[in-house]
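re: that chain from earlier
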Amino acid sequence: MLTNGLTGSYMLMQGYQSPVFTELYQNGMELGIHTLTHPCTDVGAATMRGEIEGNIIGIMGSTPATVTQLVSLAWPCGVSSVPYRIVAADYVLCARGYNFNQLEEATPYDFYN
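^ sequence. v structure.
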């Protein structure tokens, strides 16, 4: 991406991050949140909150990113629900699924899909 003058979003998983993410961050890439264990089923809102919070702590503890710079989340396995969206809204401005392979709307009506 850097070779072509582009930046992108990298969603970080787990409670610790590889040093490569610091390099990506320092080169203008967005670091986004994910989860600790990548649950692919509905684990409930309380568990999802723990997954998200643990991931945020890991990102902040191993990269220069600040909590205010973490504005997006990638749903694990594309699994989202209304309770998950309510939880996500406490932490990020938007969340996205995956496997759409289409451009997103410039002004989406749902910032948590």
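The mean pLDDT is 88.
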